[in-house]
From TrEMBL:
Residue segments, region Disordered: 1-91
Swiss-Prot/TrEMBL keywords: DNA-directed RNA polymerase, Transcription
Highest taxon listed in the record's lineage: Eukaryota
Protein name as annotated: DNA-directed RNA polymerase
Species name: Prorocentrum cordatum
Pfam families named among the record's database cross-references: RNA_pol_Rpb6 (PF01192)
Keyword Transcription among UniProt keywords: yes
Length: 158
């Protein structure tokens, strides 16, 4: 069947892409897909997402509004540990690198140095000087029970 004048295709590639994506475009724009496509279920989609029950359909869910925040039911906010610090009082290499890296990023974005920079301009060297002087940020250690401990740099054994 030749295409009508109102549905002329510009190129062969565009026509093939339009045919392949036709149902997707209709669903995205809000129009109902043809009944034959609606009745079919993709087995791969069923495996990934499971079958929808009769009570659960697209109309049951609240629409997504881009500007609104959505809080998930299973969100757990960590709590501060009520016991004294349990973890060892040693600053690990990873904590040291993270503290220096975060502070170096701040210094590279024109934050005020907390120590006298003398003639130093390298943000990593300045961050290391601040850590050694005890002026850098303190690490927060998360525990297996989901709580956390806040440490001060003066609490660590150097």
């Amino acid at each position: 069947m030749p295409p009508s004048d109102s549905k002329k295709r510009k190129s062969r590639g565009e026509g093939a892409a339009a045919d392949a994506e036709g149902p997707r475009r209709r669903r995205a724009s809000g129009a109902e897909p043809p009944p034959a496509l609606k009745a079919e279920e993709d087995p791969e989609e069923r495996e990934l997402f499971g079958a929808l029950s009769a009570a659960q359909s697209d109309s049951d869910h609240a629409p997504y509004n881009e500007g609104e925040s959505q809080i998930l039911d299973n969100t757990k906010v960590p709590k501060r540990s009520t016991q004294p610090n349990k973890s060892p009082p040693f600053l690990t290499t990873y904590e040291r690198v993270r503290i220096i890296g975060q502070r170096a990023l701040q210094l590279s974005m024109n934050a005020e140095p907390r120590v006298d920079p003398k003639s130093e301009t390298d943000p990593i060297a300045l961050a290391t000087m601040e850590l050694e002087a005890g002026e850098a940020g303190a690490p927060r250690r998360f525990l297996p029970d989901g709580s956390y401990e806040d440490w001060r740099l003066s609490d660590f054994a150097w």
